[in-house]
Amino acid sequence: MKLTLKIWRQKNANTKGRFETYQAEASPDMSFLEMLDVLNEDLISQKQEPVAFEHDCREGICGTCNMVINGEPHGPMQGTTTCQLHMRHFNDGDTIVIEPFRASAFPVIKDLAIDRDSFDRIIQAGGYVSINTGQAQDGNAIPIEKETAAEAFDAASCIGCGACVAACPNASAMLFVSAKVSHLAHMPQGKVEAKRRAQAMVNQMDEEGFGRCSNITACEAECPKEISVEHIARLNREYLSSSVGSQVKA
Amino acid sequence: MNWFTNFLTSSIGQKVVMSLTGLFLIVFLVVHLTGNLQLLAGDGGKAFNLYAEFMTTNPLIKTVSYLLYAGILLHAFQGWAIWRKNRKARGPHRYAVKVNRVAGTNGFAASNMAWLGTIIFVFILIHLYQFWLQMKMGAIDMVTYDGKEVADLHGLVAATYENLGFVIFYVVSMVVIAYHLLHGFQSAFQTLGLNHRKYTPFIKAVGKVYAIAVPLGFAIIPIIMYLSK
Ligand code: HEM
Ligand code: SF4
Ligand code: FES
After folding, report:
1. Residues A193 and A238 both lie in one domain
2. Which of A99, B40, B50, B194 measures 20 to 30 Å from A192, CA to CA?
3. CA A139 → CA A131, A142, A144, A183, A189, distances in Å?
């Protein structure tokens, strides 16, 4: 299949970028990233600069393959990362517009590659469970209801890709932060630090310059892991209760 | 900063303020509508004028009305502040192509709350100038019922709605409020953390009915008064 690609090219964080148009060849069973790989081989053989884009696992679990494809983060398929998106979902002769995720807290490094350190700093602020070394506990000694485990697992499936921020008109990171807070708050191991975690992660999120959540729900619609905004409500509860009803200092 | 100001200035705290003031306004609109429907009582305005007299002189209601003005201002200024923050967070670059998919709300309303709200704010200013200020300034005729002299607010309203321009202005403003609430009603509960598979479908249904029925109720008043002038 023949494609026209309009790709955002930007040399580095300090230069202005612009769209470049390329003609590309692809086969329907290629993944979207493989299609870009072929384009890059072409560019390299023509002694041109290849398009910088991030990727790692190429199996939908690492969350690095972020780009906006025809106006949607990770492209048009529901619940699919860019690396798992296949060219059979496009038609011969299509024009495809490819842009980086846009948010002040996600500055462009080069072309489609963005800096998501802000997410890492939010995780560092509280997205963990403190475990002191020692004897490993017998797994069966911590009973967890199946429904609770399932909900925690739903939240845990967030891969930290940032598509929620990219899709949100406010560039809010609430879906990401709520997935982390909700995941750990469900588990007995995470409950201990739940109050402190909610405060610390929301503070860090605000400091990084993400927007306020207007409950637009574009995040849920575009999340490749289909994380529900129910987790945002849980984050709101956790934050409210830790602000009003706990000794934890922000 | 102490914990309270810290909470109020946090992203979630700011939204909680929006939600609580918004819910307060939602309750107020029902009270306001019930009162206003008396304009259509067909009694030459007696019921409505006496009601207006009661509402403007009862000390308890006067106190609540000051809370209301404060609530509107807080809601509006906080809304604008959030809007500015969000534009900054989005950054200077717009997407060349953007698909606006949402999951379970009115996407147009949800992404334009500040614009809708600003129009509502202008509406409220004009609305207060037209009726409330005229009454306060005494630029209004008086009527006497059973020996009691009260302001003829009904007459002022009826005279205003003889002007087709004002009728259209009021009806369009109600459509804007309807959109604001089509998203806002259920959003206020989500902001407070009240979202559960068990009751959220109910909140969303009530929200839709409210967002359509209440502005519609307000809108029919000028229409009927205009047609029956
Ligand atoms: C009839 C009067 C009004 C009512 C009943 C009302 C109600 C509401 C409700 C219930 C919300 C949802 C709160 C939440 O998501 O937690 C909301 C949000 C909002 N309102 Fe209003 N509102 C009114 C007037 C205004 C005015 C005058 C403005 C002026 C700017 C305004 C601006 C906003 C904004 C910007 C939001 C979105 C905040 C966000 O989600 O980030 N509203 N409103
Ligand atoms: S919530 Fe979804 S869209 Fe947001 S970072 Fe996690 S997986 Fe990506
Ligand atoms: S490359 Fe890892 S999720 Fe796409």
Report:
1. yes
2. B194
3. 15, 6, 10, 18, 12
The pLDDT of residue A164 is above 90? yes
Which structure tokens are listed for A135?
């004897």
Task: Say yes or no: A212 contacts chain B, CB-CB below 8 A.
Answer: yes
Cα(B86)–Cα(A206) distance, integer angstroms: 11
Please tell me the distance between residue B72's alpha carbon and the centre of ligand 3 in angstroms: 46
For residue A4, give the 3-state DSSP assignment.
Answer: strand
Final residue before a domain boundary, out of A83, A110, A137: A110
Same domain, A199 and A100: no
Q: Tell me which of A77, A84, A153, A164 to substitute to probe ligand 2's pocket, judged by most ligand atoms within 8 Å of the beta carbon.
A: A164
* Cross-chain CB nearest to B190 (options A203, A215, A243): A215
Query: pLDDT tens digit string along A196-207?
Result: 999 999 999 999
Give the Cα separation of A113 and A66 in Å (integer): 8
Give the pLDDT of residue B4.
Answer: 87
Backbone angles phi, psi at B74, to 5 degrees: -60, -45
pLDDT (0 to 100) of residue B118: 98
Residue A250 lies in a domain: no
**Which residues have C-beta within 8 Å of that of residue A5, sequence separation ≥ 6?**
A21, A22, A23, A24, A39, A95, A96, A98
ipTM of the complex: 0.93
- Please check whether residue B195 is in contact with residue A213, taking contact to mean a CB–CB distance below 8 angstroms: no
- What ligand has the least distance to the C-alpha of B74? 1
Q: Please judge whether B91 and A171 are an interchain contact, meaning their C-beta atoms are less than 8 angstroms apart.
A: yes
User: Any idea which residue has 């006496």 for tokens?
Assistant: B50
Is pLDDT of B184 > 90?
Answer: yes
Cβ atoms of B109 and B182 closer than 8 Å: yes
Residues A158 and A227 in one domain: yes
Residues B17-54: tens digit of each pLDDT: 999 999 999 999 999 999 999 999 988 899 999 999 99
Say which DSSP state A215 is in. -
Q: How far is CA A6 from CA A30, A95, B186, in A?
A: 19, 7, 39
Query: For chain A, what is the mean pLDDT?
Result: 95
Output DSSP code: residue A83.
Answer: G
Q: Return phi, psi of residue A7, to 5°.
A: -120, 135
B79: domain range?
2-227
Instruction: Give residue for tokens 């403003």.
Output: B173
Closest by Cα among A69, A30, A37 to A55: A37
Q: Which ligand is nearest to the CA of B86?
A: 1
Same-domain pairing of A129 and A235: yes
Report the range of poorest mean pLDDT among A133-137, B32-36, B129-133. A133-137
Q: How many CB pairs under 8 A join A and B?
A: 152
Q: Half-sphere exposure (CA, 13 Å, Cβ side) for B150? A: 21
Q: Is B167 helix (H, G, I), strand (E, B) or coil?
A: helix
| A54 and A146 belong to one structural domain | no
